[in-house]
Amino acid sequence: MKTLRLACFASVLASGLASGLVACGGGGGGYRYFNLDGGTGDGGQMQKGDGAAIADAGMCGAVGMICGGELPGCCAPATCLEGMCVGPNTCKGVGTMCVQGDVCCMGLVCNGADNLCEACGMAGKKCNANIDCCNGFECTQDGICQKPVMCKQPGIACAKTAECCNGVCNQAKGACAACGIPGVQCAVMEDCCNGLLCQNGSCKEPVMCKMAGAFCAQTGECCQGQGLICHQLQGTCASCGVLNSLCKVSADCCNGVPCTNGVCKQPVMCKANGSVCALNADCCGALCNGFDKLCAACGATVNANCASNSDCCGNQNWTCNLNTHKCQMPMVMCKAGGLACVATVECCKGLYCDGGKCTAAPICKAIGATCAKYSDCCEGDSMECTNTKCCIHKTYQDVAMIKCYATAECCPGQTCNLATGACQ
User: Fold this and answer.
1) Which of 33, 111, 177, 240 could pair with 170 in a Cys bridge, judged by C-beta atoms 3.0 to 4.6 Å apart?
2) How far apart are CA 127 and CA 145, in angstroms?
3) What is the helix (H) or strand (E) element at residue 19, kind and residue range?
4) CA distance 309 to 181
5) Which DSSP letter does residue 420 get?
């Protein structure tokens, strides 16, 4: 009998593996052993149902015999592979399941990432340990084979800190360097040592920012994270100015709106002389000639067209001849220095009526002179002391007392209507 019944084979695996004694019951109540030559007896080698044998206790197993567990080991140079003694040249082929320590055929490795015998891992191949990768490659923390990256020394160009052996990849220098101490050039906060800030291109110690209402000299002092700026008009940390709020410089205004004549607003585009107009406000010179309907300077020549006196230079006493529609020469001459006067408007340009006489050196403060209050200025009731300078103010001006000859004589944000001599 060369084959074992299935029940007997189960007994071999169950009892024989546990005790080292393998036997199958015979017809006479004893045990039958199966020899390699097919005979049976009370000893010798036992055969597996498929023809494989199990070595006797104390003996080693030849190639093809069952092994593993407490069964006898395999005779050298055979090894136990998957419960069977195999010759020294037996190996697992490509794609065969394996565990570390299994013998894969020549050129293959047991890859720990997928537990298969396969070629060693080149760049990009999954891996579990360096042994899974080919020579010259290493298994990264991400489980990918790649060539080892040599770290860069200080001064070597870099793109990110991970490339550097020590320190950081300083973005301002574009090279590996030690982290920046105060004063070291930087481009981003990571260029600086822990706790330092990168401000205005250099590493600095952090400074507590100032809250709203605190005096300041520049915006960097204020808590910009709270939307505060150093408002130059107020001289304190504050929110930026909305449209039509007062300002000193454009930086006081929100969203890039310019500071126009002391107010956050977009400047009104005016028209140059010679442009078609409908209103005085259309023109940069604040005069839309009523006869020509063009922006123009006030008429001060005998051939200047006019529709009314406002088209002529009234501050020089030119008037409009409504018959000819031409500006005509003034009928009244201005008073020179030393002549008696009641108001500055009677005196020639550049003179003031002070002490009842026209003079170029008045005791009162002339336009543009330093003042403390409006009453310090000549013709004070028509004046204002703005930014410690005397100027004609459109709200208070009496053109019967004083007229403007240029926009610079009016208070900031106002212009001089050369036709009427009024600030507006």
Assistant:
1) 177
2) 6
3) helix 17-19
4) 73
5) T
User: How many other CB atoms are found less than 10 A from the CB of residue 211?
Assistant: 12
What's the CA gap between 221 and 212, in Å, rounded?
11
Give the Cα separation of 265 and 256 in Å (integer): 10
pTM of the model: 0.29
Q: Yes or no: say if 320 and 309 are a contact pair by the CB < 8 Å rule.
A: yes
More confident: 315 or 292 = 292
Are 236 and 214 in contact, with CB atoms under 8 Å apart? yes
The Cα–Cα gap between 122 and 135 comes to: 9
Least confident of 23-37, 90-104, 276-290: 23-37
What is the token pair recorded at 188?
């981003």
Handedness of CA 57, 61, 67, 68 (dihedral sign): positive
| Closest residue by Cα to residue 239 from 264, 272, 262, 205 | 264
Contact partners, residue 281, CB within 8 Å, separation at least 6: none
Dihedral (CA of 209, 212, 215, 217) sign = positive
**Inter-residue contact 74 to 60 (CB < 8 Å):** yes
Task: Specify burial of residue 146 (Cβ count, 10 A radius: 0-12, 13-18, 19+).
Answer: middle
Q: Is the pLDDT of residue 326 over 90?
A: no
Q: What are phi and psi for residue 374, nearest 5 degrees?
A: -65, -30
At residue 232 the predicted structure's pLDDT band, cuts being 50, 70 and 90, is very high
Residue 313 gets the label, from left (phi > 0), alpha (psi -120 to 50) or beta, of: beta
Q: Give the HSE-up count for residue 174: Cα atoms under 13 Å, Cβ half-sphere.
A: 1
With beta carbons less than 8 A apart as the criterion, state whether 285 and 418 touch. yes
Residue 304: strand, helix, or coil:
coil
User: What is the C-alpha to C-alpha distance for residues 9 and 49, in angstroms, rounded to an integer?
Assistant: 7
User: Residue length, the chain?
Assistant: 424
Beta carbons of 78 and 85 less than 8 angstroms apart? yes
Q: Which residues contact 28 (CB under 8 A, 6 or more apart)?
A: none
pLDDT exceeds 80 at position 7: no
Distance CA 237, CA 210 (A): 7
Residues with Cβ < 8 Å from 168, sequence gap 6 or more? 161, 176, 177, 178, 179, 180, 190, 191
Q: Is the pLDDT of residue 233 over 70?
A: yes
